């Protein structure tokens, strides 16, 4: 449903037509318009007539073939529903707890390698940087990383 009369003056025009005088506008010669006694603006009357004369449009077409771009498609809210937001937050918290538990089970060197390679958003360490830090080969860092990632 769509609201037709939104202001007090429009509601008077809509619900109390007997209180209006007949008014003819030069652009619409021969066509009478309702004009309230309280000297409403002709623009308000014209707007109200336009609202009342507007044709109805179905929000959803009878079939998908009739109208591929139905008005309902433009009204759809694409933002996530509250249940989806709550579910995403719950999943994120569960994943964070699982990651913390997994990292806590690693020794300090393995934890440092995994955090440096995979858990930094910016400036993640390379195999060669970690190899120089721990004084082992880059291949050994890769092996530790692979084994600990599986764990």
Describe this structure in words.
This protein has helices at 8-15, 42-53, 71-75, 82-104, 108-118, 127-134, 138-150, and strands at 20-24, 32-36. With 151 residues, it is mostly helical. It has a two-stranded antiparallel sheet with strand order 1-2. The relative contact order is 0.06.
Q: Summarize the main sheet.
A: 2 strands, antiparallel
Strand content: 5-15%
Task: Kindly state the number of beta strands.
Answer: 2
Oligomer: single chain
Structural class: mainly alpha
Helical fraction equals 40-55%
The pLDDT mean sits at 76
Strand order of the largest sheet: 1-2
Shape: rod-shaped
From the N-terminal CA to the C-terminal CA, the straight-line distance is: 59 Å
What would you report as the Rg, rounded to the nearest angstrom?
A: 35 Å
Number of helices: 7
Q: What string, H for helix and E for strand, traces the elements in order?
A: HEEHHHHHH
Low-confidence stretches: 21-25, 28-32
Give the helix/strand layout.
Blueprint: H1 8-15, E1 20-24, E2 32-36, H2 42-53, H3 71-75, H4 82-104, H5 108-118, H6 127-134, H7 138-150
Antiparallel strand pairs: 1-2
Give me a quick take on this structure.
The protein has 151 residues and is mainly alpha-helical.
Question: Which key phrases capture this entry?
Answer:
151 residues, mainly alpha, two-stranded antiparallel ribbon
